[in-house]
Hints:
Layout: H1 13-26, H2 30-39, E1 58-63, E2 66-72, H3 78-92
Antiparallel strand pairs: 1-2
Amino acid sequence: LTERMDNAQFGSVTPALDKARTAAAFRRPTKVFEDIIAQGGAGLRIMRLDEAMPIDGGLPLIRKGALIGAIGVSGGTSAQDGEAAAACVAALAP
């Protein structure tokens, strides 16, 4: 399912989907990759992973240890996207 807010830029759709795919593929927040790259050095190898979007805003949805989906948010700053994704996950919590 993909949702776009009214009047949101179309350019944010693809990064949001990429963030969700990354979170699902690696079963971890995209912020993890952002932090690894920020450290530099050997962490820059992350940039070679085709499926890794290294920008905050992607979170996996895991219930009872199983991956059931992912959230990807784009359009704000990296930190804002991360906060929005976390709010989405919290809203979905049982």
